[in-house]
Amino acid sequence: MSNKKVILVTGANGQLGSEMQALSGSYPEYDFLFVTRSELPIDDEKAVENFFLTHSIDYCVNCAAYTAVDKAETDSEKAFIINGAAVGNLAKHCKSQGATFIHISTDYVFDGTATSPYTEDDIVNPVNLYGASKLKGEQLAILNYPDSIIIRTSWVYSYSGNNFVKTMLRLMKERESIQVVSDQLGCPTYAADLAAAIMQIIERLKQSPYLLNEVKKTGQIFNYSNQGAINWYQFALAIKEFSGTGCEVNPIPSSQYPTPAKRPNYSVMDTSKIQRTFQLVLPYWKDSLQKCVKLLVGQ
């Protein structure tokens, strides 16, 4: 029988889950359980209960989520079940096993009216139903298991899945010019960097059992993104630069690109707490973007 600590990763085929899988080979001292939605639908209470009855879990990283921001406006019931109730249920089962629960949330819990980076203690006020469903998940996780660790992240992209970087690369290949919103400010997050940070957090917690008590004193919510704040237009310009495309990129206001779900105009987050607590070094957004674009264009 293995004495290795077991890490359960839900949503294994998503952007973050895929990066966790790619990283797992560098951590042979752990046994990883990667489960996709078909293998463990987190909104199926009986399936989750049976899974925890038949597996001994030390850490659970919940990467599973309902991520269709615009669709959530008309499909809110499903969004609230997956992003809300299911998260609380996972937290409950983690508590029953004494497993560390790490849940991924979003900058969309904020309304975007701030003028300086959001801290973990700032007032939450989602402007769309996706953000509201993610906030519900945070609340239920902490209610059901006060030891839960919640990581709010923003503008996630990666080599896999659907994301802004891959969409821009496709459009820049297909068109001579594109228009990109320039009045929404935030921080990109390379999923590979977040995956690495999560593993470092798990390592720190394993090495220092008392660290979790310190975390609880300051609150278990943490902000994570790459360093540096930009708008979507600047993001697109950097993608153009690294891909070497000749496509023209033009800035437009959000009013010229209406979407079913409102987006926060400002969602820059202060990441000093996660850096300080877990001794993390967060890469600069442009350095990480360059790595990802090189992978995507095969350079």
Defining traits:
299 residues; alpha/beta; Rossmann fold; 6-stranded parallel sheet; two-stranded parallel ribbon; 10 helices; 12 strands; 42% helix
Describe the structure.
The termini are far apart. Helix content is 42%, strand content 17%. It has 299 residues and is of the alpha/beta class. The model has no long low-confidence stretch (mean pLDDT 96). It has one domain: Rossmann fold. It has 10 helices and 12 strands.
Percentage of β-strand residues: 15-25%
What composes the largest sheet?
Answer: 6 strands, parallel
Q: Low-confidence segments, ≥5 residues, pLDDT <50? A: none
- Reading off the top of the CATH hierarchy, the class is best stated as Alpha Beta
- CATH arch. level architecture: 3-Layer(aba) Sandwich
**Given the C-alpha coordinates, what overall shape results?**
globular
- Radius of gyration, rounded? 19 Å
State the CATH superfamily name: NAD(P)-binding Rossmann-like Domain
Q: What's the helix count?
A: 10
Strands across the major sheet, in which order? 2-1-3-4-5-10
Q: Could you say what the CATH topology is called?
A: Rossmann fold
Distance between the termini: 44 Å
Overall pLDDT score: 96
Overall tally of structural domains: 1
